[in-house]
Specification:
elongated; three-stranded antiparallel β-sheet; alpha+beta; 270 residues; Glucose Permease (Domain IIA)
């Protein structure tokens, strides 16, 4: 607020209207005084404040996957230690690493689209390819495989593409080829889930490790129920997820297309 002594008009009016109430000097405040005080706030300052508030509040609403806590905590402590010792450049490096980990392990909320027979994307990333396969790990019949490559900049949390029950889980050790290569689907370390919906239709989601991503995390067990879009796992620092659609499914994405977990419709049941 603008002090009274800085406004000669308000000061002069106040001197004429000063009253004594119970031995105390009282200066009445009139509506025009309030208008003058409000004029001290520019439209620009009000606009900046309104922009800052949502940004600041969003920082506290950021959701982080629990697997990222050790990385973020370590980087934070090292940054504080380096700055306390006067190692500014080292402190800056650890601060940047901290921000990178916050980005790597972010876990935003997603709202799935509504509709019957939708098969949603289990991961963020880019569609590497769409291929008909005869047999692969948990899947014996002819299936359509949609491969999604997750870069280190994508969200790494994986989500259920359909609602159903986890019928089978199988982990297979293997190599660590670059996830975008075709041989990664067959030879890399992977974790496969077979999901059965209420009508007995079977779907598959395979988490595949890569060059950087050498740790696969799975939150569910055989027999667990999965809601549409439920988080079921995570691949450290990105990699690849293969989605297997049952026969008769229609694919609604194309090679090279960017997809978002839960929000992008990969296909539809016919």
């Amino acid at each position: 607020m603008i002090p009274l002594k800085n406004d000669p008009i308000m000061l002069r009016e106040a001197q004429h209207e000063r009253k004594i109430v119970n031995g105390i000097n009282v200066i009445p405040v009139r509506p025009e005084h309030c208008r003058r005080v409000n004029e001290g706030f520019s439209a620009e300052s009000v606009s900046q404040a309104s922009r800052l508030s949502p940004f600041a509040s969003s920082l506290f609403k950021m959701s982080i996957a629990k697997e990222g806590y050790p990385f973020i905590l370590a980087a934070t402590l090292l940054a504080l230690l380096a700055l306390a010792l006067g190692w500014e450049w080292a402190g800056l490096v650890f601060v940047l690493a901290d921000l990178a980990f916050l980005g790597f392990f972010r876990d935003p909320e997603r709202v799935p689209p509504r509709g019957e027979g939708l098969i949603l994307s289990p991961a963020d990333g880019r569609v590497l390819g769409i291929k008909r396969v005869e047999k692969e790990l948990l899947f014996e019949g002819t299936e359509t495989r949609v491969s999604i490559f997750m870069s280190p900049l994508d969200v790494h949390v994986n989500r259920a593409p359909v609602q159903g029950m986890v019928e089978e889980i199988r982990h297979q050790k293997g190599s660590f080829f670059a996830a975008y290569r075709e041989e990664a689907s067959e030879n890399n370390e992977k974790n496969a889930l077979r999901i059965v919906d209420g009508k007995g239709r079977k779907f598959g989601v395979v988490q595949i490790a890569g060059v950087l991503a050498r740790r696969i995390v799975c939150y569910v067990r055989k027999g667990d129920s999965l809601e549409l879009g439920q988080r079921f796992g995570l691949i450290m620092f990105g990699s690849r997820v293969d989605l297997f659609l049952p026969q008769g499914s229609r694919v609604d994405v194309a090679q090279g297309q960017r997809v978002r977990a839960v929000e992008t419709v990969i296909g539809r049941l016919q």
